[in-house]
Backbone:
């Protein structure tokens, strides 16, 4: 399915929404082999529990950054893009 956007702001808004959905809710086939992991974010949480020293931020901080990015982008006037 092809989507035609009216402007860059509309496209950017859609991309941010997709990023949030993809990392938080979308189930992935390759993750089925790992018990109790269905989404990329759950995989990050599990990895953090195993080896937290590999991460610069906690999974909750990362999730908040993504959600704030979505909020911040929606606050921008369309003329800035």
Residues:
């Amino acid at each position: 399915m092809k989507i035609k956007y009216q402007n860059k702001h509309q496209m950017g808004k859609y991309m941010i929404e997709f990023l949030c959905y993809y990392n938080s809710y979308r189930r992935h086939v390759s993750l089925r082999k790992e018990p109790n992991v269905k989404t990329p974010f759950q995989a990050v949480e599990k990895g953090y529990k195993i080896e937290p020293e590999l991460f610069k931020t906690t999974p909750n901080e990362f999730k908040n950054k993504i959600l704030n990015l979505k909020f911040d982008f929606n606050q921008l006037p369309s003329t800035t893009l």
Observations:
- Residues 52 and 58 are 8 Å apart (CA to CA).
